[in-house]
């Protein structure tokens, strides 16, 4: 159990770093200063986990209990500040790093919810919210088109990953196989959307009917 807890904490830290990198890459696209890089890295890195802990009642939230996530975010922001000028396709790097981040966090969020006693449906919702919230905050602050408004599949990938993880977990599959199943499924869907432009059918507005004259 101790090993599992340590591995979960390590995965959580990796997720924080990956999301922090996406925030810092967004800062590079806006040509912000070093403080801007660190701020966007931090708010993106801990955003989803903060929402998760608040909803689950795990307060104070994880980065208040232990400052390591904030330190990792700051280091990620500083590193990207110096490395970004040498990365030619920064937006593509942001999208693929974000795909990795949401794949891990949709599983972590769902897992934390199940551990807290949530129902399977609520755990899936928590996985989706945990994975998506950091990217939403990042895009709003950076003035980028929101992940929710992009045509290619995004939130659906987190829904697929969280759902498969919860179904596998409830069916008795050990945690790590279930986690890898959900994570790889989420990444596969998001990667397909990035590579092949996968989308879902969208609503098409039609002119409303005119009321007959009185």
Name the descriptors.
mainly alpha; 214 residues; 8 helices
Model description:
It is built from eight helices and no strands. The protein is mostly helical and 214 residues long. The longest helix has 28 residues, at 2-29. The N and C termini lie far apart (74 Å). The model has no long low-confidence stretch (mean pLDDT 89).
- Residue ranges: pLDDT <50 for 5 or more in a row? none
The number of distinct helices, counting runs of at least 4 residues, comes to 8
Q: What is the arithmetic mean of pLDDT? A: 89
Portion in strands? under 5%
The class by helix and strand makeup works out as mainly alpha
The rough form would be described as globular
Oligomer, anyone? single chain
Give the arrangement of secondary structure elements.
Blueprint: H1 2-29, H2 34-56, H3 62-65, H4 68-83, H5 90-115, H6 120-142, H7 155-170, H8 175-196
Helix pairs in contact: 1-2, 1-4, 1-5, 1-6, 2-4, 2-5, 2-6, 5-6, 5-7, 5-8, 6-7, 7-8
Short description:
With 214 residues, the chain is mainly α.
């Amino acid at each position: 159990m101790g090993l599992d807890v340590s591995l979960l904490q390590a995965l959580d830290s990796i997720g924080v770093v990956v999301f922090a990198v996406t925030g810092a890459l967004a800062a590079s696209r806006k040509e912000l200063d070093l403080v801007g890089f660190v701020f966007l890295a931090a708010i993106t890195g801990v955003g989803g986990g903060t929402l998760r802990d608040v909803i689950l009642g795990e307060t104070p939230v994880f980065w208040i209990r232990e400052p390591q996530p904030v330190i990792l975010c700051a280091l990620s922001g500083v590193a990207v500040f110096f490395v970004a000028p040498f990365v030619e396709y920064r937006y593509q790097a942001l999208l693929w790093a974000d795909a990795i981040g949401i794949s891990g966090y949709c599983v972590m969020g769902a897992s934390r919810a199940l551990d807290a006693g949530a129902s399977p449906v609520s755990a899936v919702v928590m996985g989706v919210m945990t994975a998506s919230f950091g990217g939403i905050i990042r895009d709003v602050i950076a003035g980028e088109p929101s992940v929710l408004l992009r045509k290619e599949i995004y939130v659906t990938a987190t829904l697929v990953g969280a759902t498969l993880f919860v179904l596998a977990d409830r069916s008795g599959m050990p945690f790590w196989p279930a986690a890898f199943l959900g994570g790889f499924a989420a990444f596969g869907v998001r990667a397909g959307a990035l590579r092949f432009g996968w989308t879902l059918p969208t609503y098409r507005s039609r002119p409303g009917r005119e009321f007959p004259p009185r």
